[in-house]
Here is the input.
Amino acid sequence: MAEQEGSELLATRRAKLERLRADGIDPFPHAYAGVTPISAVHAAHADLPAGEETEARYRVAGRLHARRGQGKMAFLDLDDRSGRIQLQAKVDVLGEDAMARLLDLDLGDIVGVEGVAFRSRRGELSLRVESFELLAKSLRPPPDKFHGLQDVETRFRHRELDLIANEESRDVFLARARVVSAIRAYLDEQGFVEVETPILQPLYGGAMARPFTTHHNALDRDLYLRIATELYLKRLIVGGLERVYEIGKNFRNEGISFKHNPEFTVVEWYEAFADYEDVMRRVEELLPRVAEAAGYEGEVDFTPPYRRVTLRDAIHEGTGIDVLELRNRDALAAAIAASGSDIPTDGLSWPELVDDLFSKVVEPTLVQPTFVIDFPKEISPLAKDHRSQPGLVERFEAFAGGMELANAFSELNDPDEQRARFEAQRRFADEGHEEAMPFDEAYLQALELGLPPTGGIGIGIDRLVMLLTGKRTIREVVLFPAMRD
Here is the structure.
């Protein structure tokens, strides 16, 4: 029955389309000039008392959301990206033919309207319609205006319907845009240069992850979608750009979860003559600005300074296990089993056990902004040795809201040490670990030219937006997330 009703609605709308064309009306005109955002109309008359008229005339455009009344007077609601405004249509202003055409429009049609602003006796700012133009005929009905669009699968697969139906979804993606703008503004102010590095790469690197592989026909070679921008950005530091950043997509052929999407947006920046302490200070400067830009109101307090705790101490506080005392794979696996944790240990290396122990037990408890610092060298192949703690590197991860938001290093700039780290990763791969980092000779040759002391970081924008908009899954903050068939 519902399918039949849907077919009838589509047929009715198509019949209207054909009548418009038969009457010489273009249902899809090229433009509608001089449009004012609806929010600007509201702002211009914020102090107008109820029942007051104005002589201010505006042209607005958007999608018809609702209609009330028939005959000689009707009210319609018009939505654009910035808001909603009530339209008053009167037959003695428009004339009978125009009034009939206006009332024959369907909800969901995109319309341009010219009219005069006034505030109704009930206090609602409105436009008295003097003329209108159909800008795009909607051949499919919009989601039910009373119940919105509730089906999660439909919301994510057809984001356009979600944005039409749910003002909250529009607000999330507008907040996301402000977050990206705030990050870009901060880095530009600090003298960083925005750059673009290859997405299709002959060799992936910069993280421990499985790549997507594709094939270039003209070159007859396999290429990889980048898993990180790190190695190319550090080559630019070698080249003398000194402060660089990139905001863009990375791709990892991994599982999908509430905080993982196979393509995700990251900002990475690298700064010559800096270390991970300098990067931490920049994060403390940046995050409050970004939270303010997003209009964040939640339990996380982004006021610096942020707590700092070593990875060793964080795991010990959460589990009672000292991972540096148990630097043997079997000993650590036994300790995890004895702790009563349900973390599986079979087939996992010592670095993988450390990572699982931290991410599954400790990470969810880190609600307030926290820098977890000083990681074992085995799980940090691109980070510089700690200046005072043998076996550790100068690396931190930033957490808030129970999620990792950022990963940062004092960058390893000794080419011989980096070569040895790559060799260790090669052995790791030979043992069957698919996420081992590949050996990158081109990057090593760049390091041999001389990489100055450098601090670098990658911040996951999707997760940051999740936190700042109060969303519980990454699919709520990615416009078109990856979905199963």
Remarks:
- Residues 333 and 346 are 8 Å apart (CA to CA).
- The chain has a mean pLDDT of 93.
- The two ends are 26 Å apart (CA to CA).
